[in-house]
């Protein structure tokens, strides 16, 4: 009987895995919402259990308050990024003529000496060239518009997924405890105790992962802000904070911070030599984060060896791309818990001990 149950369970797992694979494109907003709900549910529980005299907020109100907090954090990040980009664009527009004249001063003697050429291009000529090729530019814009309309269904699907995330998140936050209770009710009674032990360990490991990742983000924000400030960059604080806080998305925080740092340095200093300290700061930051902070603050807390952390990130990226990198460590931590219990069962089995009595 148990053999038939095991075979049926294996078939169910295979069917479920195949279904997840086929429905992968539409599962993305549900997966993102589920991750956010898992992170935010403890706070919703605290607000839901809060009592002040006769006032006690409902679960729905608690979910709305937490979602407002998440939206506020996202809005705060945008308020940091948008003014920063606006200031960069204004500085670029102001200093572009200076850069053009500097390049002309440096290049014209060299071109005259080696090729007998003179730089006679000025902004009036550039404007004339743009005017003469306006029809071509219009055709290009037309082609871009046609391309967007051809992919309108894909764009509409992306926007629908974006709108779907907060909707799914709201329902998950409101009914999270009910959903967990119903899932537990479906587990066979003889497996419920072991399942609860494994689930509690996975929950503890993921909580440690979140604390470790938050520590890495805060430390890298301080490092980047201090390093860029020592390099003399005027926008060191917003660029440093942004680079550190976006570190939970692999390569995005580093890449965006490096790009903004280089652009700010070029606009502020006006020469390539002053880019060296900026490059050193981000180079050291990437080494410290990937080789020290993430393996030890995140890897140690979730019970993974630093080599296992690096392998998990590379394997996740190879198998599932960007989403795989993002979920590599928490998924690996959950799998590691299962492996520890499987190892314990194996070491106590008759097959390992050789005791068949």
Structure description:
The structure is a single chain. This protein has 357 residues and is mostly helical. The chain has 2 domains: 26-81 and 142-186, no CATH class; 188-357, no CATH class. It has 12 helices and no strands. The longest helix is centred in the first third of the chain and has 56 residues, at 59-114. It is elongated, with a radius of gyration of 28 Å.
Radius of gyration: 28 Å
Instruction: Give the terminus-to-terminus CA distance.
Output: 22 Å
- SSE order, one letter for each helix or strand: HHHHHHHHHHHH
- Chain-averaged pLDDT: 75
Q: How many beta strands in the DSSP annotation?
A: 0
What is the total number of structural domains? 2
- Briefly note the structural class of the backbone: mainly alpha
* Beta-strand percentage range: under 5%
Main sheet makeup: none
In helices, the fraction of residues equals over 70%
**Shape annotation:** elongated
Number of helices: 12
Give the assembly state of these chains: single chain
């Amino acid at each position: 009987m148990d053999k038939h149950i095991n075979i049926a369970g294996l078939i169910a797992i295979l069917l479920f895995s195949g279904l997840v694979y086929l429905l992968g494109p539409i599962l993305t907003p549900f997966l993102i919402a589920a991750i956010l709900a898992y992170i935010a549910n403890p706070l919703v529980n605290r607000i839901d259990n809060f009592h002040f005299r006769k006032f006690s907020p409902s679960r729905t109100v608690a979910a709305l308050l937490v979602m407002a907090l998440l939206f506020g954090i996202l809005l705060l990040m945008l308020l940091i990024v948008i003014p920063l980009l606006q200031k960069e664009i204004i500085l670029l527009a102001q200093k572009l003529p200076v850069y053009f004249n500097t390049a002309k001063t440096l290049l014209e003697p060299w071109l005259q000496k080696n090729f007998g050429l003179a730089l006679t291009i000025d902004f009036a000529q550039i404007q004339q060239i743009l005017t003469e090729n306006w029809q071509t530019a219009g055709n290009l814009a037309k082609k871009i518009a046609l391309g967007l309309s051809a992919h309108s269904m894909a764009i509409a699907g992306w926007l629908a997924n974006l709108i779907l995330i907060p909707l799914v998140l709201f329902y998950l936050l409101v009914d999270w405890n009910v959903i967990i209770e119903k899932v537990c009710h479906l587990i066979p009674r003889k497996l419920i105790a072991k399942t609860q032990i494994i689930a509690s360990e996975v929950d503890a490991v993921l909580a440690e992962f979140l604390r470790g990742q938050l520590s890495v983000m805060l430390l890298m924000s301080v490092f980047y802000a201090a390093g860029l400030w020592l390099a003399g960059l005027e926008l060191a604080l917003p660029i440093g904070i942004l680079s550190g806080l976006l570190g939970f998305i692999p390569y995005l925080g580093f890449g965006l911070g490096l790009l903004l740092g280089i652009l700010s340095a070029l606009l502020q200093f006006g020469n390539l030599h002053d880019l060296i300290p900026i490059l050193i700061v981000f180079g050291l930051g990437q080494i410290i984060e990937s080789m020290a902070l993430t393996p030890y603050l995140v890897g140690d807390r979730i019970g993974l060896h630093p080599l296992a952390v690096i392998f998990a990130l590379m394997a996740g990226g190879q198998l599932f791309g960007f989403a795989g990198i993002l979920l590599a460590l928490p998924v690996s931590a959950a799998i590691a818990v299962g492996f520890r219990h499987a190892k314990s069962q194996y070491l106590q089995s008759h097959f390992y001990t050789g005791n068949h009595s």
